[in-house]
Amino acid sequence: MEIVEHNGRLLIDLPAVLDLPTAAELRDLLIDAAARDTAADVVLNFSQVERVSTAATQVILAGAAALRLAARRMDAEAVPEPVTAAFTSLGLTAQLNQLTTP
């Protein structure tokens, strides 16, 4: 994973499996994105994700909250059914909807 600047946004393409090790890597990327001297929104591209762990879900929601405190936004794009199901099983449907609603 890496941060790519694209159309005034910071884009992170997520891997097929968002497990504990990738959650740690994503956390580091989100810290880097939040620390950048920019007003750019962060966009997570979920198009390749097949499985997401609770740890990764926590990192995503914590990153979104941190960006909101910095008057910035995190968006989720191309969210597949396995990600929706994972958030739903954790009772976090509303939080996922906030990330996917423009």
TrEMBL record:
A Pfam family of this chain: STAS_2
Domain STAS: 1-102
Xref: PROSITE patterns: STAS
Residue stretches spanning the membrane: none
Annotated protein name in UniProt: STAS domain-containing protein
Biological source species: Magnetospirillum gryphiswaldense (strain DSM 6361 / JCM 21280 / NBRC 15271 / MSR-1)
